[in-house]
Amino acid sequence: MKKTCSETTLTNNSAQAHTDKTESTTSSDSSETGNNNRAYQVLDEFLKEEEITLYNLPKYYDIAFSRDVSGEIKFYTNCFRKYCSFDVKTILEPACGSGIFLINFPKYGYHITGYDISPKMVEYAIENIEKAGCSDKAKVLLGDMVTMKFNPKFDAAIIPLSSLGYLQSDKEILSHLRAMSESLRKGGIYIVEIACACDDINNEKTPDETWFAERDGTKIEARWRPYHYDKENRIRHVDFRMKGQDNGRVFEFHEEHKLRLWFYEDFKKLTREAGFRIETIYNQEFQLVPKDSRITGETGALYYVLVNE
Predict the structure, then answer these.
(1) Section 118-143 average pLDDT
(2) Which of 16, 57, 191, 272 is least surrounded by CB atoms within 10 angstroms?
(3) Mean pLDDT of 116-133
């Protein structure tokens, strides 16, 4: 994964876009000072590194990918009620990142456990959980999706934002799915959000591939751009770029992400081998996708409801 980093400046247009397109949050002076000091320390360490990764910068990841997840949680809970024959009380989230679902599911009465392979992301998620005051119902662990297993077993599991794609080979994916099957109750469900390959990669591109986010004096400009399909090796190549202003300190970096290039028949085969059944599929509007549909990337990212048999 090739990464470059440099100090830079954001354009006036970008700064204006931050103002127009994002919402900011506020905090007390004391907490703001503490957060800023920590941010400067992280940024200083970051700028000294020859190679950096998005997932080693959890604060900036959290800001860039922050969103209102209430609609997603409503969708997930509706699936729990519809496709599980028992009350879902415990949830597992692999590749949980900075913990946006870990701090939101407890508001609805659920207990949730997340895990992530990045130590810095786990540390940041722990802080988020503590700040949200939900340590009694949420926890996060360091773990690898390929091998992580749990006992006691969970009632349900989720993996949003195509995070499963970071497992590229059939062997890794099958190992993960089998580990998840062993970590879920029989009849429990695993809701997986992924996007399959488009017939034409240009259909995966949007007119504006850049987005903006802002929080507590930190402004982020990010771009996620798929640019190549390696169909033979099942790899999607994505160029990711981020610019940021952190209370006057400015940075920029870019890196390549390599993710699994999904084809529906591959996904169906692997889930079946791991002991899951694809019960149904939903689109991004949380509407059912007809079972006779041809599943390609043109339909966008989809939610697959897998039942653990």
Answers:
(1) 98
(2) 16
(3) 97
